[in-house]
TrEMBL record:
Subcellular location: Membrane
Domain of life: Eukaryota
GO biological process terms on file: proteolysis
Membrane topology of this protein: Multi-pass membrane protein
SUPFAM superfamilies linked to this entry: Ran binding protein zinc finger-like, Rhomboid-like
Species whose genome carries this gene: Malus baccata (Siberian crab apple)
UniProt-recorded Gene Ontology molecular function terms: serine-type endopeptidase activity; zinc ion binding
Residue ranges crossing the lipid bilayer per the database entry: 114-132, 186-217
Name of the protein in its database record: RanBP2-type domain-containing protein
InterPro entries membership: Peptidase_S54_rhomboid_dom, Rhomboid-like_sf, Znf_RanBP2, Znf_RanBP2_sf
Length: 332
């Protein structure tokens, strides 16, 4: 165990965080794994369970401090301080903010791109904090509360994520108040400074600047950045064991009429096929698409298990057309 580290006690807010996170993920068709992993990592570091306690440093060893980082090269303070939190309310507030920002952002991009974005925003926000604090000391001889201050928490990354999220919308809400997206993050910074005493102004400001730089760089660069390519390679390697297991333990998938890949007697069949007209996934037992009546072979007429259906539709069906065809098919 790490000496001098007291195990935190929960006052009831962490169960509420867990319940809210579960309810949000339960209603999603696509579960964002990186956001969930970040919430779990921050929560585990705060709770310090027995299997992690021997390897985790104390919060005093990782608190962000520009003076110690620049003078002694203490990089663990640079990279680890965002994942440590000063108290339960600090953790829960940040993790709820991460949940609300991470889900829409991760859902709008692939996992590798989102993981790359979080890593870049973390490094840039921490670097901005060092740059601002050192500049205030050098040019204004102002070191009180900035160059020598200690800070922890994920807030800098969250402010940067807020900038990226706002760049995709026209309007945003800050504490329930509708504000144009270009100004929302600045309003949130002002509210945080007024309503929450002791927060790091430089840390939050650095997150905003990091987000602005990231949005500008992404807008001026086409294609995947090298870090995203690295994350894609890592995720590809991690998927190998899952692919191996899926070959030996195929997952039961559901079509409009029930499980696909298994017969009523439990015998395996060839799986399912996707209609090239409406992309609906049909059971391999069917020759005609259940959604739009397009033939599996694309000639416009069913055979085998199905009787002749409507002519082949070459193009994208509207939602109303798909509904109409499905109602006609199953109302017979």
């Amino acid at each position: 165990m790490v000496r001098g580290v007291r195990r935190p006690r929960s006052n009831g807010m962490l169960p509420l965080l867990a319940l809210h996170t579960f309810s949000e993920y339960y209603r999603l068709d696509r579960k964002p794994p990186i956001t969930a992993g970040l919430i779990a990592a921050n929560s585990l570091i705060y709770l310090r369970p027995d299997f992690l306690d021997p390897i985790l440093p104390s919060i005093e060893e990782v608190r962000f401090n520009p003076h110690l980082i620049l003078k002694y090269g203490d990089l663990k303070r640079f990279f680890l301080s965002p994942f440590f939190h000063a108290g339960e309310s600090h953790l829960v507030y940040n993790m709820l903010s991460l949940l609300w920002k991470g889900i829409p952002l991760e859902s709008s991009m692939d996992r590798a791109e989102f993981a790359s974005m979080v890593a870049v925003l973390l490094g840039m926000s921490q670097g901005m904090s060092l740059l601002i604090s050192k500049s205030l000391l050098m040019f204004f001889d102002y070191d009180w509360s900035f160059y020598s201050e200690y800070s922890v928490g994920f807030s800098g990354v969250l402010f940067a994520m807020k900038v990226v999220l706002n760049s995709q919308t026209e309007n945003s809400y800050v504490y329930g108040i509708p504000i144009p997206s270009h100004y929302a993050v600045w309003a949130e910074l002002a509210f945080a400074q007024m309503l929450v005493p002791g927060v790091s102004f430089v840390g939050h400001l650095s997150g905003i600047l990091a987000g602005l730089v990231y949005v500008w760089l992404r807008g001026s660069y086409n294609g995947s950045d090298p870090l995203t390519a690295i994350f894609r390679g890592v995720f590809g390697v991690l998927k190998w064991p899952l692919r191996f297991l899926q070959r030996w333990f195929p997952r039961r998938q559901v079509s409009g009429r029930g499980p696909v890949g298994w017969s009523q007697r439990g015998m395996s069949v060839s799986g399912f096929w996707r209609c090239h007209a409406c992309t609906y996934e049909n059971s391999a037992w069917l020759d005609v698409c259940e959604m739009c009546s397009t033939n599996r072979r694309g000639d416009g007429y069913g055979s085998g298990m199905g009787s002749p259906r409507s002519p082949h539709y070459s193009g994208h069906l509207t939602l109303e057309e798909l509904r109409r065809r499905r109602l006609e098919r199953f109302s017979r």
